[in-house]
Design goal:
This is sn-glycerol-3-phosphate transport system permease protein UgpA. It is a multi-pass membrane protein. About 70% of the residues lie in helices and about 0% in strands. It contains 13 helices and 2 strands.
Length: about 290
């Protein structure tokens, strides 16, 4: 028998969802509309005067080699963060799901990094890899690697990727572990009786059943790499050296709040929003077809 909730007051359902609607309107739709409006204007640093220029901000933007290079940097960074983070988290969750001694303590330790603020993560890894005082940099010199991310752009990119992956591993780990624990053990036992080894069982039984979780985390990690890593990059490298780690979201901040080019910054935010919407659409339109619910 189907059960339905009946509200006594006609306006009660609307009152219950009103706070969420207000938050979405104030913190998402209103800033998005403001960015769209400001992207077609040129204004001074203090917003005192505005001049309508149409699509000129976008034309100047796509003629800027530094902005186009930030697309490449963002692509490398987001792919590395999402792929390394998902694979590492899945491996850790797979072993944490096994009945081993100290499994509870092991799982707790893997969840702790999620409680660390992104800016603290950036500062933490910056000190660990500090060319003069960092313990990791000292170890690397013992292997003949001259580490100095302050001068080397590739090393700076490696640093922010490691920091971003470390911050997100806990989030991915929680979902993968929950997904693994929801898989019926009878299916794994049946695969073992059929003679399937550990790798074959994982590839043919476990991973297909984890596809909804993996798809969800893929979308979340792409959005995380595009937006939520801003504080990590700002604290660790500030987009340097020589713009080597200046991803799109950091360039929006730099041009808007440091260079005080409001029109260009707004145009960049519109482009970034369009890219994320397009990627999300592609993921749901094509990749979701391979998900087995």
């Amino acid at each position: 028998m189907e059960k339905r909730v009946v509200f006594r007051g006609r306006w009660l359902p609307f009152a219950l969802i009103a706070p969420q609607i207000a938050i979405i309107l104030v913190f998402f739709y209103w800033p998005a509309i403001q960015a769209l409006v400001q992207s077609v204007f040129i204004q001074d640093a203090f917003g005192g005067s505005m001049e309508f220029v149409g699509l000129e901000n976008f034309e100047v933007l796509f003629a800027d080699e530094l902005y186009l290079d930030s697309f490449r940097i963002t692509a490398v960074f987001s792919v590395a963060v999402a792929s390394i983070g998902l694979v590492t988290s899945l491996v850790l969750a797979y072993f944490a799901d096994r009945a081993i001694r100290g499994a509870v303590a092991f799982r707790t330790m893997l969840i702790i990094p999620y409680a660390v603020a992104p800016a603290i993560v950036g500062v933490l890894w910056m000190f660990l890899f500090n060319p003069t005082l960092g313990i990791v940099a000292h170890w690397l010199r013992g292997f003949g690697i001259d580490w100095n991310h302050v001068l080397d752009g590739r090393q700076a990119m490696i640093l922010v990727i490691i920091a971003a992956v470390w911050k997100q591993i806990s989030y991915n780990f929680i979902f993968f572990l929950a997904g693994l624990q929801s898989i019926p053990k009878s299916l794994i036992e049946a695969a073992a009786l059929d003679g399937a080894g550990a790798w074959r069982t994982f590839r043919s039984v476990i991973f297909p059943l984890l596809s909804p979780t993996t798809f969800f985390l893929l979308v979340i990690n792409i959005v995380y790499a595009f937006f939520d890593t801003f504080a990590i990059i700002d604290a660790a490298t500030e987009g340097g050296p020589a713009k080597a780690t200046e991803i799109l979201v950091y360039k929006v901040f730099y041009d808007g709040f440091k260079a005080l080019d409001i029109g260009s910054s707004a145009a960049q935010s519109v482009v970034l929003m369009a890219i994320v919407l397009m990627l999300t659409f592609v993921q749901f339109r094509f990749i979701e077809r391979r998900v087995q619910y």
